[in-house]
Amino acid sequence: MGLATELYESVYSDAWYGYFASLFVQKNDDFPTINFYPRDWILKRAHEAFIADAKGLIQEGFRKFNGPFRIITTLGSRIILPAEYADWVKKSPDLDHQAFVSEGKEFFAGYPGFEGTTAVSDPHAVLISVVKNKLAQNSQIQKFHTHVSAGVAESWGEGNAWRDARWTETGVTLIGLISASVFVGDELAKNTTWQKITTGYAMTMFMAARALRTCPSWTRPFIHWLLPACRTCRAEVKRARRILQQELEKRAIQKKEAASDQGQVPEKREDAITWVEEVTAGRAYGPVGMQLGMSMAAVVTTSELLKQALINICAHPELVEPLRDEIETSVRAHGWTTAGLFNMQLLDSVITETQRLNPLAEVNLERKAVRDVKLPNGQIVPRGTTISFDGYRYVKLRQEGGKWTSASAAVSTSADHFVFGMGKFICPGRFFAVAEVKTALAVILLAYDVRLKPGYVPKIIRYGFEVMADPGACVEVRRRSL
């Protein structure tokens, strides 16, 4: 999936100068601002309105202005475009997503403790190369199945009585297990300390970034040393570096021993440690940053999708048996392979509908204007401005002549459904993310009965542009009697 769901423009980010910045924005372009209020000297009301109801502000903006407009976020203003501009933006050479990501300002690349975002922002795009060329290969699906099966068995056991699934925790754990099996190999993936560090880092880093965003920009290079979440990030990076260094040293010894035996070929491991070494080709890089960057990208957004998808399935119990029938048929015909996952069409539809109803962000398709850009309606987007889109839409499942088409798939992208981006900046990890979610849901539904705790009503948590599954979700499970 995409790497982050809350990436904001850093222009005019200092709240103490926000009022004057807003005057500048108002005078130098013709985009109205939806949450600019009189006498809101330091934009306190604007920030509170954004955090509490960004979705409502976006809806109000399109009703009020009938076109592009600005919204003041906790990191400055951003231009929101209607979804019908998506195809035009996809083709525009002057609106660049990589330039937006590479700045690294939104997630404080270069700060100690933020090594994961530093790796993601690397101008050499090492992680993107690895994701594009190596992830979600057919051979990995069986590995996904093995680790998810072990993970749910350990978390939920064999009893046939209903019990609390601890779904918020378990959902993150399952995605962490799957991801680690590919990122660091089977052995280290089973290391519980490594698991806790990488999944914990992904969550803590987002908390640390949010905390830093509330601080005036001039204080951030210093105050990060004092903020608890930032201190936790630095501690987790230190622990991760120690464990990973041991793994790298062990591999180096194994290579040396194999090379010293005449005729021996060193074992080539199919994991991201090896792939990053191949892509960097001797160039210096930070191994721990690469691993934490991949975990950060994989765990947070993908686990949110998994958690919300199972909640939605539990809320519609009539889907469970049809889903099981489809999963069993697909696995019987194709095994745990990419073909098997592809043929789970109803499951794909459930995931896509989850993305539509509960998107991970209220906006998508972030781009940075690398020069002044004229929109189709004649308005000028100033150089350096970040733009986003009004969420995304999903038209009903496409079937042509009764045949499933790839345009319906959760990994597909169009002007109606661009949760994974569009054009050359489409999320390279979308196949990997959807394969993880499909495998996890399939394993769970085959092995366990699932339901919402009686009396529990699902809810969605919103914070600015972010949309999150209920952290207090009450999902119950019991082992099926097969």
TrEMBL record:
Q: Name one Pfam family in it.
A: p450
Q: Which cofactor does it need?
A: heme
Entries under CDD domains matching the protein: CYP503A1-like
Q: Where, by residue number, does heme bind?
A: 427
Please tell me whether the keyword Acyltransferase is annotated for this protein: no
Q: Recorded GO terms, molecular function?
A: heme binding; iron ion binding; monooxygenase activity; oxidoreductase activity, acting on paired donors, with incorporation or reduction of molecular oxygen
Protein keywords: Heme, Iron, Metal-binding, Monooxygenase, Oxidoreductase
What InterPro entries does its record include?
Answer: Cyt_P450, Cyt_P450_E_grp-I, Cyt_P450_sf
Q: Which family does it belong to?
A: Belongs to the cytochrome P450 family.
Protein name as it appears in the record: Cytochrome P450
